[in-house]
Amino acid sequence: MTILTNKKITLNKDTRTFIQEYINYVRDVNPEDIYEGLNNKQIIGNKFIFKMYQLENLDLANVDLHIENNRVFVLARFWNSQIINIGSIPLSGSLKIILNQEFYPILKITGGKYKKVVTDTYGEDTIVDDFEPYQLTLEIHKADQTTYKSQRIDEIYHRTFKNEHQLVTLSKNLMRCFAIFGLLLGLGFMFLGFFLTGLMVIIAFFGVNSYTLLLADVHMQEQRQRA
Question: Does the keyword field hold Transmembrane (predicted)?
Fold first, then answer.
């Protein structure tokens, strides 16, 4: 991974909105990214942690660059969210050369809400919640062939599935097809006299997929209740 340059972004008024929406999204899809999945007790129990930010990265954000009037405007989105102009950087001569080659941009974040371990007068450790202003940095990486292909796949993926519900629905329908296929195949083996083989096929295809669908439905109900 070769970093061609990194520049601090001059943020605008929409940046805080983007970050808050991103945090809400991460809470749903990967809550382990919030405070690294640790609660106050776990942070205090880890003697190597003295300060932990709510958000350590913006790995799920898709970044695009738009050049206008000698400035590079940084556009960001995640999944099927609205594209937001989070800020800009000046377009220097060296940056213009970099942007004329194969590259891919990512965002780095510092600041925001954080938890700090504080020792009181009695020697007891407690957690103090505080906030620092956000700062976003644009990193431009040299695109190797693997990364370029990965980005193309990611673009096709997001164009195909407009939202998470479509992806979940397709996955569940495929699992239903495998379950039915396994049931029919297993019954076919049984009909031909291979009872144990048919039973194993039914368990492997029909049983496992049906159980997974049941767990998925239970999880979705829990998510709706929490919302």
Answer: yes
